[in-house]
Amino acid sequence: MNIYQQIVNKKLHNISPEELLNYSAQYNISLTSDQAKKVSALLQSKKVNVFNTSERIQLMKEVARITGHETAKKVNQLFMEFTK
Question: pLDDT (tens digit, 9 = 90+) per residue, 7-27?
Fold first, then answer.
């Protein structure tokens, strides 16, 4: 894993609910405060490598349980943009 991947993964594992809400507004992704708290807790509890497709897909399934399918789909598209 290169340094860029390490930085992105570390940022995701330490992201706050407030940061998630800011990003959701910036990228036009519907997210409530409660959902942001739950997703933040999920990201902090699971050390997932978002550059690994199978790990990211599993994470998105869990995010979909919290936020709904459409929001998780948008989040996955955003991850794919960052992981190119």
Answer: 989 998 999 999 999 989 998
- Say what the pTM is: 0.86
Q: How many CB atoms lie within 10 A of CB 36?
A: 22
Q: What is the pLDDT of residues 31-79, one digit of tens each?
A: 999 999 999 999 999 889 999 999 999 999 999 999 999 999 988 888 8
Report the alpha-carbon distance of residue 62 to residue 31 in Å, rounded: 15
Q: Residue 48 in contact with residue 58, Cβ under 8 Å?
A: yes
For residue 75, with 0-12 CB atoms within 10 Å meaning exposed, 13-18 middle and 19 or more buried, which class applies?
buried
Compute the distance between CA of residue 40 and CA of residue 35 in angstroms, rounded to an integer.
Answer: 8
